[in-house]
Design a protein that fits this description.
0% helix; mainly beta; 3-stranded antiparallel beta sheet
Amino acid sequence: FGQRYKFIVLASVVQIAPNRQIHQTAMFASRCLWSRDTDGSVTVQAKLGYDMMATVTAFAVYTD
């Protein structure tokens, strides 16, 4: 399985405003050649403490 796929992981950790009256937006985007039949991805977002946020996206791209 591992030899036919390449795994790419993108991780971003950002500081968010602790004052909830300040509205903020974070957007993460990526592009690549993609096959709906063989390739896949998953994104996870987590709040870290009082004022940090992490976003991680993992891609599995078929190369055979």
